[in-house]
Amino acid sequence: MQYVKIKDVIVEQIESGMLTPRQKLPAERKLAESFDTTRVTLREALSSLEAEGRIYREDRRGWFISPAPLRYDPTQTLNFTNMALSQNRKPKTELVAAKGMLATKEATKLLELQPFSDVYRVDRVRYLEDRPVVYVTNYIRPELFPNLLDYDLSKSLTDIYREHFGVVYQKIRYRVSTTSLLGETAQALRATSGSPAMVVERVNYNQNGDLIDCDIEYWRHDAISIESIAQLDR
Asked: Most buried by CB count within 10 Å: which residue of 104, 153, 199, 225?
């Protein structure tokens, strides 16, 4: 099939270094002409490369070569900034919104709350090398963190909890799934609606075993690699 041949050529150019991370591919029309093919066939090749995490698409900007994914180890308690810096990446966090509200159905379930409980909701977008890669929503129990909304929430919540409230993470429960980026989440990540995404859902407990917050992370699927080493007891 012709789209497989086109895909193989692009993969070879990526692996040889002819195409470099974050490099923009030519417009689809020009690419189709260079491969002497139709745009329909070209899009099959590009969609296949996107599914494999080789390239990513930004809405109204085109296709780009994917950098190496961030290695995400669920057994480590490194915050996003330190995780990125430890891998020689350039992180940035942008606060989208922060407010007090009644807990959603999802937050009520994850935090094991009574109906109509209050929570803080914090929405942020995180970047690697100026590319938005993850949209994060935190739901936080306000009775444990009074006046939390007064702090600079573009900074690490882990650090704010520890430095200002004496709270540290002791246990974290993870769930990883896949979805598609839609609506405001897709827009914030400069993704086209329907782009594949990885969802990392975390429920966090403090040093006393109390549920303190949860977060739902919507990652551009090519930007993250879940990796861990399990130490087995014998």
From this structure: 153
